[in-house]
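User: structure tokens for Tctex1 domain containing 4, please.
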Amino acid sequence: PPAERNPTGDQEPPANLSSGQGIPPAPARGTEEGKPPLLLSRRSSILSTLPAPLASRRSSLGAAPGGRRPSIGCPWMLHSHVSFSGLPLFQPVLKTRLENTYRMRPDKGCKFNAGRVQQVLEGALASALGTTVYSPQGSALLAQSLVELLQSQAKEVVPPRYKLVCNVLLGQQGQQSLLVASRALWDPESDSFASATFSNASLFAVATVHGVYFE
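Assistant: Done. Predicted tokens:
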């Protein structure tokens, strides 16, 4: 039927939506009529199930918009050690403590043999130096390596419970006169020393090994 006209000749205005008449607006996506969004209700339910300290702490993390990002670490973690169970932890090796033997003298036939040690020193110097040319820059490292070599070889012929002190003197061969002397405070009945020399056309070496009985 034709639309009714008012006395002025205009059509009837549409239904007044502001007064609640007509089609109501569609509810928000993901929500039901008269209920808040599901995400907000779920978040509020999670907070309601948390204990009071955690809930207040959770809410305090977002209470300062625009500020610095809050730290979620605990203060006590900054001043404590954290151990991880199941991981291999390396423990310090404890030194084995032995009982006293109360032996103040070496056993019979177990003294420092100076003649045998001297033979070892002479053979080690001859094989290590040979035709080595003297060098002022490399003489210090050469002397250090000779000390380690002579000490390790002398230990093979020295009885146990002896402490060894090894000295090596290196110099350039120039037909000069040189005297090497040493003094020690020890027990002459159990302690002794051995020395050996070596020389070639470029250098000479004097090695001395002192053997002191360790009580």
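User: Anything notable?

Assistant: The chain is about 25% helix and 15% strand.
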